[in-house]
User: What shape does this take?
Amino acid sequence: MVHVDRRTLLKAGVTATAAGALGMTTTGTAGAAVPVPAIHPASDWGARPATGTIVVENHKPTYIVVHHAVDPPMNNDFSLARAYYVSRFIQNLHMDKNGWIDSGQQFTNSRGGYLTEGRHRSLEILRGGTRHVQGANVGNHNSEVIGIENEGLYSTVDVPPAQWNSLVSLVAYIASQYGIAPEFIKGHRDFNSTECPGQVLYNRLPELRTAVGRVLGVAVTRAEAGWPLLKPGDTGKKVQLAQQFLRKSGFGVPADGVFGKSTKDAVAALAVQAGLPRDTCTAAKVSDETGFLGADVWPLIVPAGRSTAAWRADLARA
Assistant: This one.
């Protein structure tokens, strides 16, 4: 189920100039009307007032970032009331546990396919199409991203059809407002060392980019390879390469291709030394993500002299 405001249609904001700047190739339907999804404002679900100033960035976001919200535990309540409850739960968690001024994400997508505003003013500013509200959902990248929490844990199960459809609808609308090419639709793990948005949902990001491109009327070019995510218990060539890089960085780990305790401890220590943010996502509540080796750790250990794109491509093939 996609909840669309039938009274309003937005002409796609992806102009030929913006599309070209982002590497988009327009197709026959480029510039077609993009339906504006129904997004329930923070006032609808009883949001608490923010405890600080909402920062509005004076530029458009570069990336649309997909998350999964592992708390509250998912169930088969697909109602609007449930969507409101989830929004309140996440806001309370972010404010009371994380110490943030408001919900960290700009928007929330329920398992029933209902869309709600997260951080205050996100909907208002999105409608303007020239600036964006700074959230707190991607460590060290919040000035350049707009984030969507998807209710549920998607490490081993798939999103319900209604939630998938509403995700496509929302991402297409955001992309059209800001002229963001589908290749710039990312998962949280593309920026931080986290499981988020879950392996199953992360694997569907190419499908999401294609679906959004279809709505926008643009052809989707292949996204660059991302940094691989390695976790304790993993084995193989990528782990062995990471261990070799860690050894060159001064950590006494084996190079046996097994992500054991010593490798986990070395990665965790490196993350602390570098001041990398931790627990920026509720995924960390389900499994201990300490020592995960992902997008913000790889650049600290790969040898200099090559571009990050080259390293990511090589690691993808390893």
Notes: The first helix runs from residue 16 to 21. Confidence is low (pLDDT under 50) at residues 1-29. Residues 34 and 164 are 17 Å apart (CA to CA). The first strand starts at residue 4 and ends at 11.
